[in-house]
Design brief:
Elements (H helix, E strand, L loop, with lengths): L1 E3 L10 E5 L5 H10 L10 H10 L2 E9 L2 E13 L3 E6 L9 E2 L2 H16 L5 E5 L11 E13 L4 H6 L3 H11 L4 E5 L3 H14 L6 H11 L3 E8 L2 E11 L2 E9 L3 H4 L1 H15 L4 E8 L3 H8 L4 E10 L16 H8 L3 H15 L1
Parallel strand pairs: 5-7, 12-13
Antiparallel strand pairs: 1-2, 2-3, 3-4, 4-5, 4-6, 7-14, 8-13, 8-14, 9-10, 10-11, 11-12
Helix pairs in contact: 2-7, 5-9
């Protein structure tokens, strides 16, 4: 445990920075639940999920004063033969970074993260969608790659439909009136069947079935799977997360016939309606790469994009990383992956998934 005194702070402002342990998980989550800067990706359960599913080391840091938590930073030391070693907040998630209720606590956590970097094999620290952006030039910013989408959910179904632009609304209405049915699945068989197929078709290595099962086990009532069927055949499925007043469809998969039948459109609409019935107020459509199919799909639903930045603190001599599918050097690999037989992609995909972070 280290003591950090932020520059310019008074003598009474000092934080002890320590690491999350099993005994401290409830206090960590209580802070995350009430801290406005915190997200679902700050939850303590990610430490369990990541270490159990990917075998990587978590350094979930907390800044405390007089026994009270004033900030958290869920760092993961991602060791990868493909992409090198780095510290990521939060690894395997679209968000992370410092979440604090006092500005000085973010400085204390930054310093602890930089000390970890200096004493590890990692080349850099990455904060995803930081709540406390750095303005002093010590961190490099990568922007123009991702955008996030969210908006309130109207309580009444007709008003919810009217939030969707006219052309897309017609697709949803047609799907609602069709023979498609949706249900919350208690097991992940249908979901994983569709998810793994979609990932292969995108040229992206699939995460393991064990990882998905661990998410459902660890997050319990704050995660579920909704699947749309036609005559018993699964067409579209999504794994959702719930946090405070938000529902977030996070992992999804679809049969090639799903689009023409409007199955994905019905799926997202039913997620909204079911969430609203449970008291959730906001639909978080998540992050998409700019100018891609998912990005256009979300805009067609009437969602406005919010730019998402990543920040990097680099060791001396390390160049800015470019680990994303838009990097041209990965295009041939992506196209080759799309041609793999599905059983082969499902067999070797989880090994690659452990490298991504």
């Amino acid at each position: 445990m280290t003591s950090n005194r932020p520059a310019g702070a008074g003598e009474t402002t000092a934080y002890e920075v320590g690491t999350l342990d099993d005994a401290g998980m409830a206090a960590w989550d209580a802070f995350v639940q009430h801290c406005p800067q915190a997200t679902f990706f700050h939850r303590a359960g990610w430490r369990t999920v990541i270490e159990k599913s990917f075998g990587q080391k978590c350094h979930f840091l907390k800044a405390t004063r007089d026994g009270q938590i004033h900030g958290v930073l869920p760092l993961v030391l991602v060791r990868s033969k493909m992409f090198g070693t780095r510290l990521v907040a939060t690894g395997w998630c679209v968000g992370g970074s410092t979440a604090v209720d006092e500005p000085e606590a973010a400085l204390a956590l930054d310093r602890a993260a930089q000390a970890l970097l200096a004493n590890s094999a990692a080349e850099y620290i990455e904060y995803r969608d930081p709540a406390n952006p750095h303005t002093d030039g010590s961190w490099q910013i990568k922007d123009g790659i991702y955008a996030s989408f969210e908006r309130p959910i109207e309580a009444e179904e007709d008003a919810c439909l009217k939030q969707i632009p006219r052309k897309q609304r017609a697709v949803v209405r047609k799907a609602v009136e069709s023979t498609l049915v949706d249900r919350i699945d208690e097991d992940l068989k249908s979901f994983y069947q569709l998810y793994s197929l979609s990932m292969r078709n995108l040229g992206t290595p699939v995460f393991s079935r064990r990882y998905i099962a661990t998410l459902l086990e660890v997050f319990g009532a704050d995660a579920d799977i909704l699947t749309v069927y036609q005559d018993g055949r699964p067409l579209s499925s999504v794994l959702n997360f719930y946090f405070r007043d938000k529902v977030m469809p996070y992992y999804t998969g679809a049969d090639p016939d799903a689009r023409k039948l409007g199955a994905a459109d019905l799926m997202y609409f039913r997620v909204m309606r079911r969430a609203s019935a449970r008291g959730y107020k906001t639909f978080d459509f998540g992050r998409s790469k700019l100018e891609t199919g998912p990005y256009a799909f979300k805009k067609n639903w009437g969602f406005e994009p919010r730019p998402v930045n990543h920040e990097f603190f680099l060791k001396e001599g390390v160049t800015m990383p470019d680990v994303n599918p838009n990097n041209p050097k990965y295009q041939r690999k992506i196209e080759a992956w799309k041609r793999l037989p599905l059983p082969v992609a499902n067999l070797i995909g989880p090994w690659f998934g452990r490298q991504v972070g």
